């Protein structure tokens, strides 16, 4: 993953959170688009539950991204430090 992927996940979380807030405010029928077709949703609870699950999954994905970058940075730092190590070995003398 890269920084663009992290930004994309952040954006998706914000969009889902916005949708959740809008649904909570809505009074009346709600239509949800699935596979290009709009379906009438009879229960707001089901929609809010689905959105909360989606937000939770995106947050887990974001946490995974943070863990990956932390592990990656640690590996890079260790490699960099190891490459600076020069052993103090005397040169072989010719006979």
UniProtKB/TrEMBL annotation:
This is Uncharacterized protein. It comes from the Eukaryota. Residues 66-95 are annotated as: Disordered. Residues 70-82 have a biased composition (Low complexity). The lineage of its organism: Eukaryota, Amoebozoa, Evosea, Eumycetozoa, Dictyostelia.
């Amino acid at each position: 993953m890269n920084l663009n992927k992290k930004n994309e996940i952040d954006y998706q979380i914000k969009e889902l959170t916005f949708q959740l807030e809008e649904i909570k405010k809505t009074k009346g029928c709600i239509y949800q688009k699935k596979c290009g077709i709009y379906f009438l949703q009879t229960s707001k609870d089901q929609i809010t539950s689905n959105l909360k699950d989606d937000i939770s999954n995106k947050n887990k994905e974001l946490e995974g991204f943070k863990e990956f970058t932390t592990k990656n940075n640690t590996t890079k730092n260790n490699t960099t430090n190891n490459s600076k190590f020069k052993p103090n070995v005397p040169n072989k003398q010719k006979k």
